[in-house]
Specification:
Strand content: 5-15%
Order of helices and strands: EHEHEHEHEHEHHEHHEH
Shape: globular
Radius of gyration: 17 Å
Helix content: 40-55%
Number of helices: 10
Number of strands: 8
């Protein structure tokens, strides 16, 4: 079954749950709750990548995430650090993380790929076209699916050149990053081609704006709140699993785990 990566934002300004878990103890408790709900992986981040977010000093980022990673490392769960900074990645691996989730695909910090290669950790390489402050400045595509595929292949090649074998790489189409509205759906439609490249594939649609826009455009009555975004996320997670995704990255682990279990029972004709 497709794995579920639970999100632990140790930030005051993430787009969905910023500020809820900025306190280290609250973040640790949240991570434990996600594991109890069935998360296979915890992705711990100390810098918001929401549209318009400003960069965080790497020292502050490390002060946020390292104590949380150290505390959760004894659970036996697979831990990932969500960072674009090589120094933070190295410190996180030393603290117990086994994966580095770099939303820039190794482009934001030229030291990242070499640092991860030496650390032995796995790396998520996401499709990316710029920092959060101006992430939509280059959101222009002729064929978004083909271009995302091409740019991910380039990042996979860069990782191999740095000494990271494909079996240590996870590719992510970067839903919501440098993509407007329907561009996200067209990128998702290319998921089978991304899976065909060989490395594992991670998909993160959780609570993102394009889901709310889709429901609003369909005439959904009332406000599209967090609960409704979580339901839409669960649906896209099932579809991603059917397309071959290795894992989905979500805020609501319970809803996604339930949806994946029901889809699996449907496909297998029972539990």
């Amino acid at each position: 079954m497709t794995l579920v990566m639970g999100i632990v934002n140790v930030t005051p300004d993430s787009f969905s749950d910023g500020g809820r878990y900025v306190d280290g103890e609250a973040a640790i408790d949240h991570g434990l709750a996600l594991l109890a709900a069935g998360a296979d992986i915890l992705d711990i981040g100390g810098e918001s990548t929401r549209p318009g977010a400003e960069r965080v000093d790497p020292a502050e980022e490390r002060a946020r995430v390292i104590p949380v990673i150290e505390a959760l490392s004894g659970t036996g769960a697979m831990l990932s650090v969500d960072t674009m900074n090589a120094e933070t990645a190295v410190a996180a691996v030393a603290a117990g993380a086994r994966m580095v989730n770099d939303v820039s695909g190794g482009l934001a910090d030229p030291e990242m790929l070499g640092a991860v290669a030496a650390s032995g950790a796995d790396i998520v390489l996401q499709h990316w076209r710029g920092h959060s402050a101006d992430m939509y400045a280059d959101a222009s595509y002729t064929d978004v699916g083909r271009e995302v595929l091409h740019e991910l292949k380039a990042r996979l090649h860069a990782a191999a050149k740095a000494g990271i074998s494909p079996d240590r790489v996870v590719l992510d189409p970067g839903i919501g990053f440098g993509k407007h509205g329907d561009q996200n759906w067209r990128a998702l439609r290319a998921l089978d081609r991304i899976v065909a490249l060989g490395p594992r594939v991670l998909v993160g649609t959780s609570r993102k704006r394009f889901l709310a826009e889709t429901l609003e455009a369909a005439g959904a009555p009332g406000a599209v709140d967090e609960t409704r975004r979580d339901l839409a996320t669960a649906v896209t997670s099932v579809l991603a699993a059917r397309a071959g995704a290795w894992a989905v990255r979500v805020h609501d682990v319970t809803a996604t785990r339930d949806a994946l279990a029901v889809a699996q029972a449907w496909e297998q004709g029972g539990i």
